[in-house]
Amino acid sequence: MNREERTEQKMQELFHSHAAGDEGSDGEFMQILQGYIFGDVCYTGSLDSRMRELVTVTVLTALSALPQIKAHVGASLNAGCTPVEIREAIYQCAPFIGFPKTLNAIAAMNEVFSQQGIDLPLPKQRTLESSEERYEKGLAIQAPIYGDEIKERYTWLPKPFDEAVPRFLTELCFGDFNTRAGLDGKTRELLTVVLLAALGGAEVQVKSHVAGALKAGNTKEEIVCALVHASGYMGIPRLFNALNTCKDLLTEG
């Protein structure tokens, strides 16, 4: 297939619509956009359409791109993602982008679910039996991948924050979210990498989570593929920043 045929095929798969022509006020721009994302990037690398759409929804949530979130929630369903997978991808953004932006993305997602006739609320994915388990169960996920890095890094904080800040991270990010069912640990780590890359200015965290994604079972090619896929949404500079900051991790061995 040539580029135009690939773009048409992917647009039909994800959106059940034809690729952009000359119609509308900005047909030329839409042809450039669709050609790059759906004609080039979507056919480069190993990730399937399902994983690519989870990456896309994650990046759009980080960017608060609400109209595009709605479009890609629909595309995610068409690509074979379950409603629970889409919801978990958005839910787990909260520790990184904050609760207000995440709530906005959830509202956009639920609007699409309602339009598609999907019953809400979706099935619960909480695995914790009590709030007292948040730290213990969260640490059981965090420690094998990240060790005591955060706890050791912030010992200089005044009390009680020297203890509270690392604990809050463990309880919120790993306890409240990573213990949930609906997405496996490998997927959660890969989505976290693209989320942090999309934020910009979080290169320290990008590198840490690339290392974590590798430990969780992602290959170097899958990580690069996810970052390159995100480039059409977050921009080329943030792609290069992410690749440059973790070059040693992606080339060693």
Automatic annotation (TrEMBL):
Entries under Gene3D superfamilies matching the protein: AhpD-like (1.20.1290.10)
GO MF term (any one): peroxiredoxin activity
Residues in Carboxymuconolactone decarboxylase-like domain copies: 28-111, 164-244
Stored InterPro entries: 4CMD/NDH-1_regulator (IPR052512), AhpD-like (IPR029032), CMD-like (IPR003779)
Domain of life: Bacteria
Pfam family, one: CMD
Matching SUPFAM superfamilies: AhpD-like (SSF69118)
Protein name, entry field: Carboxymuconolactone decarboxylase family protein
